Amino acid sequence: LHDSTTHSKWNYLQASVFIKPSYTYKGKGYSLTLTVPMSWQKTEAEKHSSDKQSFHHFVWMPSARFYWKLHPFWEFIASGSYKRLPSSYENLNDTYYYKNRNLLQRGIDELGMNEQMQGSLNLYYRNPFNAFWSRLNIIYTQNKSNLISGYDFIGTQPISTWHMADRSYKQISVNGNIGKIVDAISTNLSVNVNYSHTLHTLYQQGTLSNVRSNQMSMMFTSNTRFTSWWDWEVQWLSSFSHNKGYETLWNHKLGT
After folding, report:
1. What is the spatial distance between Cα 153 and Cα 169, in angstroms, rounded to a whole number?
2. Are the beta carbons of 103 and 78 closer than 8 angstroms?
3. Residues in contact with 38: Cβ distance below 8 Å, sequence separation at least 6, in sequence order
4. What is the pTM of this model?
5. Alpha helices (H) along 44-142
6. What DSSP state is assigned to residue 238?
7. Contact by Cβ (8 Å): 222, 206
8. Quick check: 94 pLDDT over 80?
9. How many CB atoms lie under 10 A from the CB of residue 146?
């Protein structure tokens, strides 16, 4: 490595102005909340007295949340958010440095922009008369950026690097849970199921590729209380993971 890329000193200055207007409307059994945080940011990076970079960004992060009491036992919540903000100034350098004992890292002399979008739907059921409950949660996440991280090598030395390139990340996840308390035997029973589908961009050794993966898990739990000082819990977990182009991995685990 050249001395110019292993010996340098960077100074950073960051200033921001932030406001967070919010409005909530409440009706009979429902409410709607709108929030629009906004900020203006200025970042300066100085390598030498004669080598200074200055960046200005307007950041806004609107979000909305809707709550609806469908029934004394049923609740529905929907939410969504959007963020557009610059990447971290900590990567704003062109210097090699050790991130830990074994990993060398090099930043980049530009700030990237990140866009983050997320939406969720939640349905809850709680019945105190028969001690039964359930929950369904669906989340969609999408991230976009013009800055991507990855790994290169100098000989056998891995280097974590940043590059100006389009990066995307999309994921949809579903989580369901049901539970029941059986008073006759002082036992709490529950089943939890998770599924996620992910598509994201990967950079390695100068090559960009799209990676698709699926993951799913199911867990059954039984907790029985025999006395005030003794209870017994049994858990059964089954899960699988699959990446496109690779074999599916299964895992089963029983614990007490």
Report:
1. 25
2. no
3. 18, 19, 20, 21, 58, 59, 60, 61
4. 0.78
5. none
6. E
7. no
8. no
9. 16
